[in-house]
Amino acid sequence: MGRRSDNADAEARATLSDVAARAGVSPSTASIAFSGQGPVSDSTKARVRAAAEELDYTGPDPLARSLRTGRSGIVGALIPQRIGTSFRDPVIIQTLDGLAEELGQGGSGLLLLSERTRDTDRVSIEAAPVDALVLLGCGVSSTTAISVLRRRGVPVITIEGDPEAGVANIDVDNRGGTRLLAGKLRDLGHRDVALVTLPLAIADDLAPLTAAALDAATVRPAVTRTHGARDVFPDAQGIVASGSTIADGRAAGRVLLDVPPSDRPTAIIAQSDLLAAGVVFAAQDLGLSVPRDLSVVGFDGIRIDELPMPLTTVAQPAQEKGTAAGRAVVDLLDGGRPESRCFPVVFEPGATIALPAAR
Amino acid sequence: MGRRSDNADAEARATLSDVAARAGVSPSTASIAFSGQGPVSDSTKARVRAAAEELDYTGPDPLARSLRTGRSGIVGALIPQRIGTSFRDPVIIQTLDGLAEELGQGGSGLLLLSERTRDTDRVSIEAAPVDALVLLGCGVSSTTAISVLRRRGVPVITIEGDPEAGVANIDVDNRGGTRLLAGKLRDLGHRDVALVTLPLAIADDLAPLTAAALDAATVRPAVTRTHGARDVFPDAQGIVASGSTIADGRAAGRVLLDVPPSDRPTAIIAQSDLLAAGVVFAAQDLGLSVPRDLSVVGFDGIRIDELPMPLTTVAQPAQEKGTAAGRAVVDLLDGGRPESRCFPVVFEPGATIALPAAR
DNA sequence: CTGTTAGCGCTTTCAC
DNA sequence: GTGAAAGCGCTAACAG
């Protein structure tokens, strides 16, 4: 029973067969007239269009079309947390923008999936009607997600995901970028350097950075950036932030800085620009001047207007990441085998690092 | 031929019939075992599950299920412009967040549609496989969109749309809110008041606010807020901004303020907080002090950290708007007839208005 | 260029 | 509690 919402109005909607009948042609011909996928005489096409017009037929039912062709025209993007949270991060927005734009070129739409959906939902990763899925800097132990999708036969692309998974991965040079920043600090003479990391797992709390937590981490970039920092400062300790907002950075910064001066680091490596901005504010809260009393570096290269000085950071091509992921998806759907790639980052000198203050 | 991507791997995926056969039951029984929509003995259910496991069957194909049930489980959101642009507006993000969250409760997913899709796209409003669509503060002459969707039988909800369209509309008190702010300015003694409006149509350019432009406007809130301002200052002139960012406001503000002092308004009513912030910056650029030399009011109630003082504005419940729209959609899909509603706004005193400077 | 035939994979009466 | 039958609306071979 029951197609559509059996709302008051609607006597059954016309189907392609109805249109074909009215135009005096077979359904297959009518189908071709609509899709252009085959030869039809102009006169026939016109007749079909006219019949459609009369019957108020707007085109093939996408649901039926999807079943028949095996394609829905929809690509899913799995984002961490809820929209309001994820979308506070400019990097995610830019990446999605690039992704959506590129998918649009291929005629596909973007379905937003949050990690938080219950699997009873009609549109969870185990049941969403998607032709492919992009895992976006996710804290799903992405191997789990990937295996579910593989079983479903849904192709996957990851952005900053686990490279081992045998899936094309669009990456940025998180390790090298952080190492570069750490190197600048070392060259200036910093030795007491602390980290403010991104959450290591979905829904992490503010906490010290422990080896155990790092081992259990599911958020790739957080781990990789930590490695990059430790390439230069092997013993660097730090704080795991509870998110990637200015407020989260401020809270983490306070923990690191609101201590006796002798225990205070001379520099802080924050794993995102928003976190770094928060650290700068935390320093200001405590009467410390940046960069005189404290050097701070970030990651991402987003502009943060509220900061009194430009941040020393590395810029990543967020939108291009999305575009590349989109292109990889389109390629995949065309039967190609897109390759992983890793974007370089670009150093932005800014004005938040300096020589360590004499003690 | 060809189901799915005929990629190297995959020998044909198992179907529900395969599972049923293996479990020694009929397809209908297997279906019930999966969906829970009917009576099955526990033992049968277990057998079906086991067979599924063995065949690597993860559940019913969503495409087939959709065709059969007439529901895709997907709700579309039509946003103006591209993601990167729309999502710079915190109000849109919050609204989408509320919407997605509420839809998630109903088990539906959110498909992002941009007005900019070409109608040849597989997933345009003409052909997206959605159970319903939410028009989000759109500049589509929404009547057009609505009529397409009505013909398709896709139910629609609008957010700040045209109320006449015979569609449930989730609105906020744009007119009353702006009138309230204008009233404050009048009470302080302002008489030379200028407007910085939101774009009146998709992709508007910075331009003077003319009667013709206002008549041709497709973006509802821009029109309504203009009316609200003119309820108090009937002759107020102004500038149509080219977007709703701080930069757009700054540009518009410059046009209004970079004139001989005698031509300068003593107050500016901007139609969004971002525009208002831009106006404040434009004033500063010209050496004017806010609110001493110029009073500025906004609209929305978002926090703008980079501003040196809190903005005088009215706050709208952006997330609740989304939630309400989501609830309306769910209601609609349940066969209900959700009603339009209009949220009130709340005055936020801020510190950007004062008595007009003596001339 | 057009029509015939078949079936995508599933859910849902309805009878047992 | 289970099975048989029907068909959602469409497109893709293939034959004419």
From TrEMBL, chains A, B:
One protein family per Pfam: Peripla_BP_3
Amino acid composition bias (Polar residues), ranges on this chain: 26-43
Any one GO molecular-function label of the UniProt entry: transcription cis-regulatory region binding
Residue ranges of domain HTH lacI-type in the record: 14-69
Highest taxon listed in the record's lineage: Bacteria
Keywords linked to the UniProt accession: DNA-binding, Transcription, Transcription regulation
Region described as Disordered: spans on this chain: 18-43
Coiled coil: none
InterPro entries in UniProt: HTH_LacI (IPR000843), LacI/GalR-like_sensor (IPR046335), Lambda_DNA-bd_dom_sf (IPR010982), Peripla_BP_I (IPR028082)
Cross-referenced CDD domains: HTH_LacI, PBP1_LacI-like
Protein name as annotated: LacI family transcriptional regulator
